[in-house]
Design the sequence.
């Protein structure tokens, strides 16, 4: 049985119950009941429930996870979910999310896989590993992007708006498939914007055109 040690150090610490399902056809009640049962067994209670009905491939900034929890959490808060996969579909997305919580002194507990992110030395080592792995993955993505750009140039694909064209061709048009794949894997818009040396709005507008 796990006791709430770290949150008790903060008088105003909040406990969030986070639930995510991919479609409206799926029921959130099973996850909620599982979290409630866990809390009852550990003499805990959830202060605030957050339910997302959205694919885990979506970046947290597009989910309530980012819009509510990540924007409002404070040091000492606790987030409980049934399993790590509720936080995201890709390993990179999950690592980045956990690293964010670790840096803000927030606990994350999962029930099924018994994961505990807290303020102990083990969690700090895990957080360092998450951060390092995420950085390596970002570098690999950067290398793949550069290779893709070079391959496009060698193949005669024009990068940038063609002369005389105002709406049918854009700088990111040749990389639409790649961009969709990266976004689906959990990569952020700002990261893609940096790789293509364009603004955040440029990537966002391109996604709107091709979605």
Sequence:
């Amino acid at each position: 049985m796990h006791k709430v040690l770290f949150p008790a150090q903060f008088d105003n610490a909040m406990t969030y119950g986070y639930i995510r399902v991919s479609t409206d056809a799926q029921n959130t009640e099973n996850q909620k009941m599982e979290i409630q049962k866990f809390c009852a067994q550990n003499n805990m209670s959830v202060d605030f429930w957050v339910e997302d009905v959205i694919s885990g491939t979506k970046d947290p900034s597009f989910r309530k996870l980012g819009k509510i929890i990540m924007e409002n959490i404070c040091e000492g808060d606790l987030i409980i979910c049934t399993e790590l996969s509720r936080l995201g579909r890709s390993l990179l997305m999950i690592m980045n999310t956990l690293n964010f919580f670790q840096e803000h002194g927030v606990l994350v507990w999962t029930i099924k896989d018994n994961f505990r992110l807290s303020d102990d030395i083990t969690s700090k080592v895990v957080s360092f590993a998450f951060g390092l792995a995420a950085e390596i993955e970002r570098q690999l993505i950067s290398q793949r992007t550069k290779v893709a750009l070079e391959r496009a140039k060698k193949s005669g694909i024009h990068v940038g708006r063609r002369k005389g064209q105002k709406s049918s061709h854009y700088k990111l048009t040749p990389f639409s498939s790649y961009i969709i794949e990266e976004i689906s894997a959990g990569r952020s818009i700002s990261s893609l914007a940096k790789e293509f040396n364009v603004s955040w709005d440029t990537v966002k507008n391109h996604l709107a055109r091709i979605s």
In short: Residues 138 and 191 are 9 Å apart (CA to CA). Residues 121-154 form the longest helix (34 residues). The first strand starts at residue 15 and ends at 21. The radius of gyration is 20 Å.
